[in-house]
Amino acid sequence: MAVADSEGGVRGRWVVFLSPMVWVLLVALAAGTWVWAGSFLRSAEEEGMVQRTEVAADFIRSYMTGIAVRQREDASKALADRTVDVGRLEIFGAGLGYTSMIVLDDRGRALAIWPPRPELIGQDLTGSQPHVRVALMQDRIAVSNVFTSAVVPNQSLTAIAVPYATPHGQRIFSGGFIVADSPLGNYLREAIAPPGGYAYLVDRFGDVVATTRNPGPEVIALSRFAPQLAAALRRAPGGDYHRAGQDWYYTSAQVWPDSWKLVIVAPHRRLYAEPDEEHRRFGIVLLVSALCGLVAAAVITYIAHRRWQEQQKILRQDARLRAFHAELELFAASISHDLRTPLTAMSASAEVLVEHYPGQMSTEEAVVFVQKIRSSAARMGDLITALLAFSQLQRGQIDLQPVDMATLTDQVWAKLARHRGERDIRFERAGLPPCQGDSELLRQALATLLDNAIESTRDRPVAHIEVGYRAGPEGFTTYRVHDDGTGFDAEQLKEVFTPFQRLHRTGTYQSVGMGLSLVQRIVTRHGGHIWVESAPGGGTTFFFTLPFT
């Protein structure tokens, strides 16, 4: 039964702590989810920016390819005569949005230039125009790096060179334009650049082709215009860098192989503004949920704890009832024997008197039998008194108050002076801690234990009795009463606390063997436990536990 109660208590404690543990696990899971959600939302924003950059790079490439294809088709019709009229070249280029134009033959020599530069006609320009050389030699569309125009003062241009066939041989048309002033510039500013951020078109040398910022008319390197971004691009095509006291995220995509690159940058505070706001709202929802969960866990824990307390109370009551039932059975058996003994003696003596007095018994003999009857009646009275005391202790309420055990022990020892007589008894009392209990009942228990110690040491010329204590178990103090008397053997120890078992022949209740039974009942009523250690000739020590204040 004790094992089952212990297992039930352990299960009950687990039930009490289960709800807080589940809440803690859920909060930890929610916190992990919240952290993951913040990272996921930011990663999603970064991935979206990467995708937008790649789509924009594809659009720019498609846009310029479309211009070049149109440029080739129109040039093969409008610029196919043996000689190219400058005025016609101007009209042709203006329709395509070019600022400057050059027509070259299959050797790279200038046939016509706009704005007019007569001194360059007939010269080989492939050395100063690398993109023209690529278009001529590889017969494909070529896009130049950004360069300072020789025909348009104070402007940096970008050119598209396309080869086209004529009846007079292969020719190259190269049209230069200012990207920032073209539809591409508007696209960078209005469609590509993120809020609070910038977009850059950079050529293969790292010079700025166009940007949403104002680089001026000169050719300028990105390393001078945005040095932190240029350094970051050398490390990786995308990532983070720090500029102007804040963190920035950048991504890049190739527009032309080994040529233009589109770069987009955005500050963290603007790029992550929306995901951070969603993350914050999500955090508020989780926090409110956690608080609601805490309240629910607290209520469930309280209910479970109260239920567990009630179960423990029922288990303790059940244990007490079982112990009391066993005690009653033993008590009833003892009563049936001990009450019957004096009654039998009284009945036998009365029968002798009836049969033999008068006539066959002298007065002196009759007096002996009368004294036996009186002795048995007195014995019966002692038994009844002890039974009443035990019954009252079992039913009565105890008044729990702080009790000074040291003072109470001194008072009890002083009142036992008549029992000590002139004997040499060395009494030692430690600094006993106070306890929570009924002072009158504890006085009775101490008197019985000390009286028992006095009787146990009666054969000692110099007796030693000691009252001490030690800590524990939890919530209790263990007190002890030790004497160096005769002690008990193993058989006696089994019946020390059995009612009507006399260990000594003097004392108040010991005369009928109820003293230690009452002590056990007093300690038990206080929620404590009492036991004894003894050996013949080795003294006796009674231990009992009481709740501390």
UniProtKB/TrEMBL annotation:
Grouped into one coarse class, the protein's main location is membrane
A GO CC term? plasma membrane
**Which keywords does this Swiss-Prot/TrEMBL entry list?**
Kinase, Membrane, Phosphoprotein, Transferase, Transmembrane, Transmembrane helix, Two-component regulatory system
- TM region(s), chain numbering: 20-41, 282-304
Known catalytic reactions: ATP + protein L-histidine = ADP + protein N-phospho-L-histidine
Q: What is its EC number?
A: 2.7.13.3
Q: Which compartments does it reside in?
A: Cell membrane
InterPro entries (UniProt xref)? BphY/WalK/GraS-like (IPR050351), HATPase_C_sf (IPR036890), HATPase_dom (IPR003594), His_kinase_dom (IPR005467), HisK_dim/P_dom (IPR003661), HisK_dim/P_sf (IPR036097), Sig_transdc_His_kin-like_C (IPR004358)
Kinase as UniProt keyword: yes
**Which Pfam families did the record assign?**
HATPase_c, HisKA
Q: What is this protein called?
A: Sensor-like histidine kinase SenX3
Query: Which organism was this protein described from?
Result: Planobispora takensis
Instruction: Give the molecular function GO annotations.
Output: phosphorelay response regulator activity; phosphorelay sensor kinase activity; protein kinase activator activity
